[in-house]
Amino acid sequence: MNTYLALDLGGTKLLIGEIDDQGNVLRHKKYESGYFNQPAALEFIKQSLDDYIATVGWKKKPIAMGLGVIGRINPEQGEWLQIDPKRTTPIPLAKELSKRYDMPCFIDNDVKSATRAVQLFGLGKTSNNFIYINVGTGIAAGTVVNGQIIRGGHFNAGEVGHTHSGLCLAIPCGCGRNDCVEQIASGIGFNTCARILREKYPTRLQIPEDQSRRVDATEIFSLSKQGDPLCVQLVENASMALANLIMNLTRMSDPEMIVLGGGIVSDGYLHTKILEKLNPTTMRFVTHGVVLTKLNPNFIGLIGAGAVAMNEAY
Ligand SMILES: [Zn+2]
User: Fold this and answer.
1) Based on CB atoms within 10 Å of each CB, which residue in 29, 82, 173, 306 is the most buried?
2) 3.90.76.10, 3.30.420.40, 3.40.50.300, 3.20.20.70: which CATH number matches 126-292?
């Protein structure tokens, strides 16, 4: 058995762990990062990894390390190009870490890493043409066509959260357009919509006055089940936005399967609502269905980073 060092860097946390070649998480530890730019993130990764090695250590010495990080990545060059348009300081992340820790290092975007986890260890084993859609704090997708993940000319393919939801709610998005799927159906989107639509619909939902604190999506689902007018509407909008996204993407790449993952869909409630809204004609070739990933939602990014270290499929 080989083991791999895996690092999953999201918007606010870094999860470090050791993965075996079957995708099992052997050990792990979580570090809170806060908001960062790329140079600060590199320092944070080094500090956290030094701590991990000192306090957790190996079950078996890893033969390579893999990182899944937010933003645009050139996986072949191992370069971290951008977090978002406001945070663009390209750094040779893989080279830096490989030198410091004396082992091969490979990197990829976090959602594309999760897509690799689905490919190697999840439902993706049964199909060479599928789309993994991550619905968490934001929304993005990994599109697999003939076994290859689509990357595009600037490694920016898959930012499907910034496609139009098909709903006309006049909710502005940071990308410059209105009513993007991410503004309606992600963790950020539920928060934004709850604050805007509370004027129109009565609710028992707790909406923090402090704008930096987000509305809890779990509470929205729970109140929606009880018929709370605002929460019913938020769930209706989000599931319609995601159903439209799924149908649009299906027309684009002709997948056999759509796999959903991420914190917002993991309890299955939104999944049921989405299925009700899919058009059978549009979905007729998606023969493996629209399904929830079976990989543990808490570890899919980490397992993906391990899969990146295994470096089996670009
Ligand atoms: Zn947008």
Assistant:
1) 306
2) 3.30.420.40
